[in-house]
Sequence to fold (163 residues):
Amino acid sequence: MRVQTPDTARYPLEVEVHGSFGADNVYGDTGLGAGLRVSIPLVAGWLGRNVSQNLAISFGADVLNYQNCYYTNQCGATYLMLPVAAQWNVFFARRVSVFGEGGLFLYRGFYDGCGPGNGVCDTPSDFGVLPTFALGVRVRLAPNVALLARLGYPTSTVGVSFL
Fold:
């Protein structure tokens, strides 16, 4: 007898709205912002007899603002970050699942209050690519609504997902 139905891991789309936190190693201070993720399950199945799983592609956008660059508190930077990751979801119970993900972040930095050649404050990187990896947990509040937390690099998030 299975503990849960195969439908636990089968949903057409997950839309996640979240708050974002960026570590202080990017621009000299921690970054705070918000974002949106969309995950599309590609395949679903069973891990053993009682645990369902799926593999999804996850992509989205985050906007983070960093205040106080390394050498002065008179400048800041805003980053647009675009993650694309493979996400492996494991559903241990009807209401709780965990996931691991890995992929890439494309980012674009914009500076404010700090101009080129300012000597005291450097502009952020304009464009780049970073690896991303995270571990997370999803707790369903209703059949199609869940709280979600992701601890990772370069951002960590807390939000609500709609399955």
Notes: The longest strand covers residues 31-47. The mean pLDDT is 84.
